[in-house]
Amino acid sequence: MNRRLIVCLLAFGACGLLEAQEVAWPEITVEAKPGARWWWMGSAVDKANLTRNLEEYASAGMGTMEITPIYGVKGNEARDISFLSPKWMEMLRHTESEAVRLGMQVDMNTGTGWPFGGPEVAIEDAACRLLIEEYHLKKGERLQRKVETTDVKQQPYAVLERLMAFSDTGECLDLTNKVRNGVLDWKAPKGNWRLIAAFCGKTFQKVKRAAPGGEGYVMNHFSRGAVERYLMRFEKAFGGNTEGITGTTPYPHTFFNDSYEVYEADWTQGLFDEFLARCGYKLEEHLLEFLSEGDRTDMARRIISDYRETLGEMLQENFTSQWTEWAHRHGAKTRNQAHGSPGNLIDLYATVDIPECEGFGLSDFGIKGLRKDSLTRPNDSDLSMLKYASSAAHIAGKLYTSSETFTWLTEHFRTSLSQCKPDIDLMFVSGVNHAYFHGTTYSPADAAWPGWKFYATVDMSPTNSIWRDAPAFFQYITRCQSFLQMGKPDNDFLVYLPVYDMWQEQNGRLLMFDIHKMSERAPRFIEAVHRINDAGYDMDYISDAFVRSLCFRDGKLETSGGGRYKALVVPGVRLMPADVLEKLCKLAGEGATIVFLDQYPEDVPGFGNLEKRREIFKDVWSRMKLMQQSGNARILFGTDYAQTLAQTSAIPEEMKTRYGLSCIRRNHADGYHYFIAALTERDTEAWIPLAVKARSAVFYNPMDGTSGKARLRQKDGKTEVFMQMRSGESLILKTFTEEDVQMQAWAYTTPMQDVVRLDGKWKFRFVQSEPAVTDVPDSVALGSWTNCDFEGARTTMGTACYTVSFRLDEPEKAVDWVLSLGDVRESARVRINGVDVSTLWAVPYHCKVGKYLRAGENVLEVEVTNLPANRIADMDKRGVEWRIFKDINIAALGYKKGNYAGWTPMPSGLLGPVELIPVKILDK
């Protein structure tokens, strides 16, 4: 063969291979698979059941199991294993070994239950709170008494930090050194005096939901020494050669910390000195303002803001950073839920390797056909809340944003896979790319149904009936995350987090940013985030610390973690440190776009050195105004968000503004890729302009793994893609800026006439049922099997097979056929003519089936699996004792004791209508 021809053929083959790789689905990694919090009840685990559990998780498609030991099972104490004991470490080693064999990863809580604490935490290292005692004297009166807290429980532990005296004329005296052996002997000089004794006391909080060997005080997260001593227990346990156990246990892939729930911990010993070092003035000299309540003065608010900032910095430095550095020394990573913390969430999240957000409740987007259930609670984590974790990950250059997923989506035993999809899609468009279910419980083979259960939902366990079809759901998540972990984030704006406004405006002293109260903590900021999103843009939040390290390079703002943005937006911010404003001024002078929305910053936060800082602020602001007026800098202002942001170089995504779709965009080497979700009641069929240029693009359907080249056109200087999406659906779009990729076309179709309605009787049988049903009719009309007249119809949990034969004379008249199952309760496996077609688990319940049909007689089988709700309700009616767990046992929504005997049977089975819809190619 001609040598030149060979070279050309080789080159052509290489190009073809390269192009195939470009349009293929990303390679699946263990991180792309969903993970789960894996509760070990009482740590009563054994090797055989650990292997059995792990094999079930792995075969279903899970990738990472995070071990969190909790309280045990009543009457099972003999099988409990003490946390970090040699026996416990042996079980961990077995788990890690089996995970390696199965291609999984193991994470581990750095404790049991939550928060961190346990038997190794001495009272001296336990969480602290501020205690106050007051004494009042007039001129000449003598106070000769023991200075101690009146709280008898606190007396053995409370340490006097300061004793301050304040006169009605404004004089302040530090009497701390006058306390001898706990007794003060002091005569009041001229004036009326208010003496304030500040003690460092204890919260006495114990670890919640602790496992055996994990019971004890919650540690002091603000004390470096307390944290260091806490971690020493893990050093010893993983070190091996303990009590006859030879060899070390490998450290887990990642150490986990749950949401910050250290209640009333507003102090630590030595905080007065820390405050002075950080803020430049003595907090003890301003206790009158610090302790004031109600309508506080501006001075008091500033002092409390400084206190809140100090507390947050100490948490970050003494706990979060130290914990992460410790994990790194042992080759492990850290995954942290910073929400709930009394600090700047962005900085706390960014300190760890994997920031983790949390969903709590069910979102309602009005998706067509998605069933509703009265036993749910609204999701407290909207897009604005979820973006704290992903923002920190993006600006700090972290690869993953994880999520605690589906917490309290519904009441127990009532969560369907279809209800899960909108909330996982919400997390994806918010920046999550590494979902962990909350959760699944280790359960031994000999445990009677429903097995061992955690007190809160969701239950993503093999004993749940939804497990039968869960692998299809897990595969959906894996496909989505394979794209969402690829490339880099491509959000438009950095949005300044007005934490000083929050610190200075909120009442009280200890300010915790938990998800349930964010609407109170930051209402204006939440509104601004949604207005920016509604204007078609995406954003990441940025803290003052990250603003200070920003640079302007090649026309974009660049964070220290490598994130690149078109502008920095300051939304309705009143308070800003002078050096941060100076940084914005410098960036604007270099060419960066700075956008002020609703108002300009007007003052500095805090109290220390206030007037000097105000002078600097005013000077910087004067220079910025001159720059703005001269037109020599891109400093924008407006109250109309859409109009103002349109003046930046960012282009809004019209799929959001005009069509109500939700999306997130990332970039890759050859272009961009979008995750798009129809979290709306609307269907979409339109040419949609993109915010990026593209020569070609490919659609990927994460539900079924299909892909195809999208239709593009160039119009009015924009790239438009033709998109068809039904309410509730999701797609991935990958664009190529320069290359015209070659592959099969994406199938755009439109319905034809002659829809085949599969009415009448269907053959009916149960594939599996618990309890087993008898006297099942041979055929039924479509509808809930709970309405049928056979024993167990209203109580069984299981899978029923519906079979119907139908005739198609000319199936080839359509380019394809779509099977629509209508209303399914709750998931379905479809088989046509003996061939498995698809597993349908979310609305709309439809799939393309043309290639499975033949001329003449066809047989359709649909295996439908219901929820376990009817079975558990029957058990409660019969008084079966299945709530056998210690501590909180099983909680109902709202953390109340519940009984399900009063539940009406939940619809189960194939409700229909079932239709075969012929489709043709849509020519648009």
From TrEMBL:
GO terms for molecular function: hydrolase activity. The keyword Transmembrane helix does not apply. Residues 1-20 form the signal peptide. This is Glycosyl hydrolase family 2. PANTHER family: DNA-BINDING PROTEIN (PUTATIVE SECRETED PROTEIN)-RELATED, SECRETED PROTEIN. Keywords: Hydrolase, Signal. It comes from the Bacteria.
